[in-house]
């Protein structure tokens, strides 16, 4: 997908990057302005002693939990008009690890090229609002129609 996202005016959400399995990435785009940052650590990356103690929070964490990856997931929302849903889904799916890559496990994923070497995904604060999504880590990132744009290293 080497072009703009026709019809997309806003996108936002969380992403799980294979090379940084402990961190929840945060994505936000409005028009031509796109931002990414660290939303915090996935609950699965924390010791249980660091989890909240109240039952409502624990119930929310459990509702989004899927073994063996815990709460790690992809959840991106695209808002726009006349979007080509099929093309967008195919482009995002192409960023996901294959089943064979997933089977290699987290230690192997951390040897993959890391588009966030700049350190933007290093904040050590737990991410609480984790939406549910497809349980596959991303091997690459598509931003504004460009796979790993210039501000990322591949």
Structural overview:
- This protein is α+β, with helices and mostly antiparallel strands and 154 residues long.
- The protein has 4 helices and 6 strands; from the N terminus they run E-E-E-H-E-H-H-H-E-E.
- It has helices spanning 55-63, 85-93, 99-104, 106-109; strands at 8-16, 23-30, 33-41, 75-80, 142-143, 146-147.
- The protein has a 4-stranded antiparallel β-sheet, with no helix packed on it.
- It starts with 7 loop residues before the first strand and ends in a 7-residue tail after the last strand.
- The relative contact order is 0.29.
Shape: globular
Q: C-alpha Rg, in Å?
A: 16 Å
Through-space gap between termini:
16 Å
Low-confidence stretches: 122-135, 140-154
Main structural class: alpha+beta
Number of helices: 4
> What's the number of extended β-strand segments?
6
Describe how the helices and strands are arranged.
Blueprint: E1 8-16, E2 23-30, E3 33-41, H1 55-63, E4 75-80, H2 85-93, H3 99-104, H4 106-109, E5 142-143, E6 146-147
Antiparallel strand pairs: 1-2, 1-4, 2-3, 5-6
